[in-house]
Design goal:
The protein has eight helices and no strands. It has a domain of 109 residues: Up-down Bundle (Four Helix Bundle (Hemerythrin (Met), subunit A)). It starts with 14 loop residues before the first helix and ends in a 10-residue tail after the last helix. The C terminus is likely disordered. It is mostly helical and 204 residues long.
Amino acid sequence: MFLPPGPVRTGAPDQGMTGTPEPQEASHPLRLDLTWLLVALVILAVIVVLAILWRRRRRPQAPPSLPELADLSGSELSDAPREAEPEPEPEQVRRGLDRAAEELAGPREPRDAIERAWVGLEEGAADSGVRRLPAETPAEFAARIVARVDADRDAAARLLAVYQRARFGSAPVTAEDVDIARAAVETLRVSWGRHPAVGRGATS
């Protein structure tokens, strides 16, 4: 027996069966950009290096080693290579000692008083007419000038030691240190007051 064909199905195709699948985004692995971290580390390293250099520049230098001052004899100082060097002018040296005594007598903090007193000595030595040697620091130069008389050597050494502790040391500077400096300055003032000429060829 002949059967007629069934009805033809028209219309949009079934999306679920024959439709093209929707495109999906491709998955990419997560990547961290560490460039900023590297830049930050470089900047931090530069800051650390600059801080170290800055602290080194601000750190007080080690005090000049002048312990030999108390051990040198008068002949050793006199024989130093200063043949063409003029004798220091006693009046200028005494003036520097007077300034040092004034600073030590004033109502100042001990460290500041000792440092200012030594500046007075350096100024007196600079005005004394004697040239500072190329390798000398101002402190060494002042110590050499005021210690040209044998009797002054111990006083100059004590004064220099107190100044070095005040200028370069970290320990507290006390009134006792000021007393030591004041006594040393007074000894030098008396000695220079008795000697109108000092050094080789000096007359009493």
